Amino acid sequence: MKFKIRARELLFFSFLLLLLAVSPPTVQCSSEEEEEIQRSQFPDAFFFGTSTSAYQVEGAYLEDGKSLANWDAFTHIPGNIINNDNGDVVDDHYHRYMEDIELLHSLGVNAYRFSISWARILPRGKSGDVNPEGIRFYNKIIDSLLLRGIEPFVTICHFDLPQSLEDKYGGWLNPLIREDFVYFAAICFKEFGDRVKYWVTINEPNHWVDFSYIRGMYPPGHCSLPFGNCSVGNSDAEPLVAMHNMLISHAMAADFYRKHFQAKQNGFVGMVVSSFMYEPLRDKEEDRQAVSRALAFTIAWALDPVVHGDYPEEMRECIGLKLPKFSAQEREILRRGSIDFIGINHYSTLYIKDCINSTCSPKSYHPIQGFVETTGLRDGLPIGQPTGKAVFFVVPRGMEEIIEYIKHRYNNILMFVTENGYASPLQENEQELLQDLNRIKFHKDYLIALARAVRKGANVRGYFIWSLMDNFEWADGYGTRFGLYYVDRTTLRRFPKLSAKWFTSFLTDTNASGHSHHEGVFLESI
Ligand code: NOJ
Question: What distance in Å separates the CA atoms of residue 379 and residue 381, rounded to the nearest whole number?
C-alpha cells in the first residue's frame, strides 16, 4: 500500500516536471502596473515641483493697478467659456499666495513653476509705466519660495497679455508685439533675475496659436470655416503669423538676456512646448509617416527654429510657400543659443491617420498641422483610460517616447517636464475628487516611464505636476480639475487630495507606493 502511494506520488511529480518542461517559459516582464517608482530612481539634483499660471490662479483681475488682460475681455463675453466661468477671482491666489506657498512647502517640492501676468506688470504695455504693485507681488512670491528652499521657474508669458495690445495693434498678429514682449521680459529679468535662474519665455506657442487662431477657442477668438465659425480670422494664415512673431519675440528676449543679464545673473532661458505623442492609427506605412509629420508640424514647428534656426524640413517641403521667412539676422539670434533648455508639457498620446492618401473629413485635419487626422479611438476603443479632458487619455508609455523624440531631434539638450497631470472625470463628486487614486496611478506610471528615459540617458532634470491646485482650465472653465489640492469653489478653501499626500510621501520616502505604510495617515486626514 505504502509503496503504491509512493508510486502514485512519483507519477504525479514526474507528470508535473514534464508539464513544466514542455510549457513555454513564463516571461517575467515587468509591466507598468507591477513596477514601483521611487524618488531615488532620479538624480539627487532633480527638480520636483508643481506648475500654475497667472490667469489660472491669481484672480484680483482689476486690483492694485492691473489692467484687463486678453482673457478678462474674452471670458466676459457670454458663451465663450463653458458655464460662462471666468478668472475674476479664480483661486484668489493674489491674496492667498502665502497659504499656497505653505502648501508647496508641506508637499516637500524643491521647485515651483508659475507665470507673471503681463497686465499686472505693464498695464499699458511698453508705452505705459511699470506697475510697482505688480513687481511687489512677484517679489514676495519669489522671496517666500527661496526662503523655503523652493526654486522658482518663471514663465514670462502663459497665454495672457494686456488687452490694450490686442486693441492697439492686434496682439501676436503684428510684428510690433516683438518690442513689447522684449520690453516686458527685460523688466522681469531686471526686477527678478537676481533670484530667478530658470526662465521660460513663452508657454506652449504651438497650442496657443492653434486654439487662438485655428479654432478660435482662446482670445482673440479668431478662426475661419471649416475649422470654426468666428466673425474674424483666417485659420490657414494667422496661426503661422502668430507663431512667427512668438518665435522671434522669444529669440529677441533670450538675446537681450544674454547681452545684458546672463553674465551677472547666470540663469537659463527656455521655451515650453505642448508635446503630445502620436501612434499610427492603422498598421500602414502612410500612417507611420503621418506620425512623423504630426510631430514635426506640432513640436518641431516651435522647436526647430529656436534650436536650428529655421522651420522644420517636413513643413518646408509640404507648405513651404505659406511659411513666413526668417531674415538672416533673425536666424542668427534664433540659432545662436536662443535656448538653454526645452520645457515639455506632456499629458497624452493620440492616434494619427494620414490624410494625404486617405480620405478625411475636411473639418478634422488642417494643412498646417501636417495633413493628419487625430483621434483617441481605434475601432471604438480608447488608446488609454479617458480622463476629464476630452483629448487626454492615460498612456504612460508616451512619456518615454516623447522624451526620446525630443532627445534625438535636439541633441539631448537640457529638458524639464514642465507639466504632466491628470484631469479627474467630470462626473465625480467631492469625495471622489478627494480620493483621487486614479491621479496617483497616473503620476506613478508616467514617472516610471520618465525614469526609464532618464536611465537611457535623456538629459531631463525636472518634473512638474500640473497643477498645485484646481484652477481655471481655459475654455473648459472650472469643471476640469487637475489639482493636487481640491479648491472649494464657494469658500475657496484648499483641501489636500490623496495625491498630494502621495506626492509628499514619494518625495520623502524611499518606499512611496500610494498605499504604503502611510495609507492609514492618508485616510485619517481626509
Ligand atoms: C497646458 C497649459 O500650459 C495649462 O495652462 C493647461 O491648464 C494644461 N495644459 C492642462 O490643459
Answer: 6
Q: Is 17 a member of any domain?
A: no
500 Cβ contact list (under 8 Å, min separation 6): 103, 107, 484, 485
Cα(421) to centroid(ligand 1), Å: 9
Say what the pLDDT of residue 34 is. 63
Q: Is the pTM of this model over 0.70?
A: yes
Q: State if residue 348 touches ligand 1 by the CB under 6 angstroms criterion.
A: no
Number of separate domains in the chain: 1
Query: Are 518 and 49 a contacting pair, CB within 8 Å?
Result: no
Residue 305, domain extent? 46-524
Ligand 1 contact, 210 CB (< 6 A): no
In a domain, 349, yes or no: yes
pLDDT in tens, 143-163: 999 999 999 999 999 999 999
CB 203 near ligand 1, within 6 Å? yes
Does residue 264 lie in a domain region?
A: yes
Tell me how far the alpha carbon of residue 412 lies from the centroid of ligand 1, in angstroms.
25
Counting atoms of ligand 1 from 1, which one is nearest the CA of 159? 5
- Which atom of ligand 1 is found nearest the CA of 272? 3
Reduce the DSSP state of residue 278 to 3 states and report it.
strand
- Torsion from C-alpha of 17, 23, 29, 30, nearest 10 degrees: -50
| Cis peptide bond prior to 467, omega within 30° of 0 | yes
